[in-house]
């Protein structure tokens, strides 16, 4: 079988490399390049673009079924081929994908932006409650008695501490980051997803301010260092988020909020971002929305004041 790559994330090597299959899912495969602790991800055509992703031109009903972990993979002269699996992928001609959140220069004080933010916040909380997820965005900034689980309580406490440290531009204390990384269960624990979204939110609101850029750089270094506390898949997302790179679904939602898009478009992009995994997408959107308003300390139509 011969497939063509549609898009390639900025972090995919431009040179020849060898790798091994790390994990296999129906519509995605993670590869571990030799001498690297960051994964690459093969994705079916209807999946999101990722910083480390190679999205393929697949037909309806396509699945990676049959591919085994440990399979050797070789990328040479613009083609990626498996040693014992009948699949060759053409990388040549695929567009390079990269998001640039810092160019959004989002200002939550603008009326259209604050309205868009509140719209997504309400949709997020509604979906979280209907899905009965551990993390409910509204509850994170309430008293610990309002939370429903140990994970939610610890996440709320750590996120509140991280917000306070961000507002003080204090990157010396890494206790909040340490408490979030690896917190929860699943392929990407809730604490990791919150951090990914939070970093994305901060990147969107730099607005050319050197103190903000400096804080993000310092916080990012701590996240990268502490990311060894979590699993390989989650670590990859954290490392890229530290550099302002997230999935196209999360980036598109940030763009639509920054533009103050109409209700229909906002909800479409929000629902698309939230549907990733059982709760990972919702956790990442929670972090994004908190990060977007952290520095501006805006009182919005929500149940907490940052």
Could you explain how this protein is built, in words?
The chain is α/β, with parallel strands linked by helices. It has 10 helices and 9 strands. It has helices at about 110-130, 135-140, 150-165, 175-180, 190-205, 210-225, 230-240, 250-260, 265-275, 280-295, and strands spanning about 1-10, 15-25, 30-35, 40-45, 55, 70-75, 80, 90, 95. An 8-stranded mixed beta barrel has the order 1-5-4-3-2-6-7-8. A hairpin with a 2-residue loop joins strand 6 and strand 7 (about 80). Helix 1 (about 110-130) crosses helix 9, helix 5 runs parallel beside helix 10 (about 280-295) and helix 6 runs antiparallel to helix 7. Residues about 300-305 have low confidence and may be disordered.
